[in-house]
Amino acid sequence: MSNFQYLTGVVTLEYDKKSCIGCGMCALVCPHGVFTLEGKKARLTERDRCMECGACMKNCPAAAITVTAGEGCVRGVINELLGIEGPCC
Amino acid sequence: MNNAAISAKNITLLPMAQKVPEGAGEFHLPSHRQPFVTGSHATAVGNVPLVTAELKLRDKLGHCLVRWNIGRDSFTVEAGLYAIGSPTDTSPVLVTANYKMSFDLLRRALNKRDTWILVLDTKGVNVWCAAGKGTFGTEELVDRIGASRLHEVVSHRKLILPQLGATGVAAFEIQRYSGFSVVYGPVMVDDLPEFLDNSCQATPSMRIKNFPLRERLVLIPVDIVLALRQVIPLTLIFFFIAGFTGDAPFLQSALSSALPPVIALLTGVMAGSVLTPLLLPWIPGRAFSIKGGVCGLLLFFPVFSAFQGDASHSAIENIAWLLITLAVSSWFGMAFTGATTYTSLNGVRKEMLRAMPLQFLFMVTGIALWATALWIS
Hints:
The complex is a heterodimer of chains A (89) and B (377). With 89 residues, chain A is of the alpha+beta class. Chain A is 20% helix and 13% strand. Chain A contains three helices and four strands, in the order βαββαβα. Chain A has a two-stranded antiparallel ribbon. In chain A, strands 2-3 form a two-stranded antiparallel sheet. In chain A, strand 2 (35-38) and strand 3 form a beta hairpin. Chain B has 377 residues and is of the alpha/beta class. Chain B has 15 helices and seven strands. Chain B has helices spanning 3-10, 57-67, 100-109, 127-133, 138-147, 150-153, 171-178, 192-197, 213-217, 220-245, 250-257, 259-279, 288-308, 315-335, 345-376; strands at 37-43, 46-51, 80-84, 93-97, 115-120, 158-161, 181-184. Chain B has a seven-stranded mixed sheet, with helices on both faces. The interface between A and B is large, with 42 and 43 residues.
């Protein structure tokens, strides 16, 4: 587990346990250990450590995970607020 | 002729049913005429450029320069297949981005190993950031496998990707569209040799992205350069305000009176872009705007007591400088979120919407107080 924690209660990560096929990819690709595989199902254990990179959603063959993924950078958010299509970094 | 029949006959099903860029998927091997290419390696599809694990002085110099934001946009290698050592059709294939730093650190980690390196065209961006943008992505990887005729070069059907590439690559889709299965390697390239020796099994700690001091330190130079670029216009504005309000000749007033707020700007940059990354785990607060502000406060008093010496300045001036320092340090502390390994987009958005009005207010009030004090005196 990383020593760092950002704001709590802000992430958009949603996980539908019913759709989970237990392949374990989410637990494997997550760089912050947000998911753990318990038996035949993944469990969302560290939701507030999610950084919304979207790796779990991308690699879930059952589409059981949704998250508004994106790079958390200031310039990207400003572009978005101003409605500009621009690079993040 | 029946148009519908013709088009139906000509339809070729493209992977992912998305528009494919022009020239994508056409056979292409990278050029041998790149400074780090040391030779040529014959394969079933032609000669592939050979590289070594050893980084030359020239490579290391490039690394130093990009850490200062010099030539970062053109620090690239050509996308495609490379050989390191003397790989055969059973040697592992490692995938990386075409940012030269990513490529160099990968080949350095592959010392004395015969491997293939498949470089994706990520527009010179590192693996993680490119995966976030989608350029280190499923489409590019499928295209690059085809363009390199990887099926003919190797007999196995396995690719090793950096774990952080998973943000842009769907492993199950790569399998479906190319026949290659994706194995996600460790987060950090330094763990790669151990991963490879351990029959491609990662230990739990290899899967977690941490943010140690060493990694935060190397980010600071680029941070400073980008921050200074942002404060230059403000510096000019300060000089003009000081020049027009002073009694002395324009240049003399500008230089003497604008000095304190310019020092406030630089103190803010130092606090937000140097102190914040450096002291990150120990600064109170979770929001980076707060961390930056705290560092600004910490740095303000020593800097300004040293600067003022015995000269007396009014309380209004001191408050003005403090406000400017706080606004700037908080802003650049917040800007560091883009470089961290754990901040989320929605978190940053929430933080920015709350912090930006305050930062703006501090800045405007600070400048107004300072200009007023100049005017009065």
